Amino acid sequence: MNNKITNKLFQIFITLAISAYLIRLYITGANAYYINPGYFKFNLIMAVILLIIVIATFRWKLGKIRILSSLPIIFLFLMTLLPPQALQASGASNRDGGGTTGGSDEANVSPLLSRDTTTLRVIDWVKLKNYQTDLDSIKGQLVDVIGFVYYSPDNSDIYAKDNLLIGRYVITCCAVDANTYGLEVAKISADGTDLSKKVSSNDWVRIKGSWEIVTRDNTKFAIIKATEVTKVDKPQFPYEQ
After folding, report:
1. Which of 33, 124, 163, 180 would disulfide-bridge 86, Cβ 3.0–4.6 Å?
2. Three-state secondary-structure class, residue 23
3. Residue 240 counted as domain residue
4. Three-state SS for 39?
5. What tens digit of pLDDT does each residue of 195-215 get?
6. What is the per-residue burial (b if ≥16 Cβ within 10 Å, else e) of 68-96?
7. Which residues pair with 216 in a beta bridge?
8. 18 and 96: one domain?
9. For residue 170, which of 124, 236, 114, 119 has the smallest C-alpha distance?
C-alpha cells in the first residue's frame, strides 16, 4: 500500500473514531461529563455528519485498499473502550471559582428566594450569597447539600485555612472551562465533632446544617455549621448547571 492511500485510510479511521465516540457519549448520557447539556444535540449532529463523510469517502476508496493499517484500528478500539470520566475532586482547589459566579442577578436569584432552603444546591447558595448585600439575611437558614470535600489553597483570603469546603463543578461550555464552586463549612460541627477527622478530601458527602456569619479582617463571611455529615456515593452526573 503506498503512502498516499495509507494516509487517507488513517484519516478515515480517525474521523470514524471521533464520530463513534461522540455518538456513544450521546447514547449513554456521558456527554454530561464533558459539555453543557445545551450542546448535546449539536454534538450528535456533528457526529452524524462526520459518519456520513466517512462512509462516502471509504466507499470511494474501497477499491484501492487491500490492507488495513493496524494503528487506526488500535486508536478506534481505545476510543471506544476507554470509560468516560467526570472531573476528579482532587483538582477542585486549582479550579476554585472563589465563591463567585455569573448568574447572580435578580432574574436568576428571584426564583430561589421562594424555595425551601433545604432544596437549594451548592451553586444556588453561591448565587444567593453573591446577590445579598447583607449576609445576615441568610443567618440561621437551613442547608442540605451534596458535594465533594476539598480544601482551599493555603494562600486563600476567602476561606479560613482550617475549614473544609463542600463543592461541585460547574461547566459553562465544556469540562475545560469548569470551575469549582464551594461552600465553607466550619471545621467543628454543631455537636463538637472535628470534621477533618470524619471526612477526607475527595469524599462525597451530604451536609445538613445552618448558616452562621463570622467576621474575618473586618469582612463578613457565611459558613455552614454542620449538624449532620454523611458520606454518600458520587452522583452519576456530578456537575451542577
Report:
1. 33
2. helix
3. no
4. helix
5. 999 999 889 999 999 999 999
6. ebeebeebbeeeeeeeeebbebeebbebb
7. 219
8. no
9. 124
Domain extent, residue 20, equals 3-85
Tens of pLDDT, residue by residue over 120-166, are: 999 999 888 888 878 898 999 999 999 999 887 766 778 888 899 99
For residue 241, is it within any domain?
A: no
Widest CA span in the chain: 77
Domain count, the chain: 2
Burial profile 2-35: b = 16 or more Cβ within 10 angstroms, e = fewer: eeeeeebbeebbbbbbbbbbbbebbeeebbbbbb
Strand, coil or helix: what is 225? strand
| Domain of residue 184, CATH code | 2.40.50
At 91-101, the pLDDT tens digits run 555 555 555 55
Beta carbons of 98 and 159 less than 8 angstroms apart: no
Record the pTM.
0.67
Where a domain ends, among 85, 113, 140? 85
DSSP structure class, residue 135: G
Q: Which three cell numbers stand for residue 61?
A: 476508496
Instruction: Pick the last residue of a domain from 27, 50, 85.
Output: 85
Q: Is 117 found in the same domain as 8?
A: no
- The pLDDT of residue 142: 97
d(CA 1, CA 6): 7
Confirm whether 94 is domain-assigned: yes
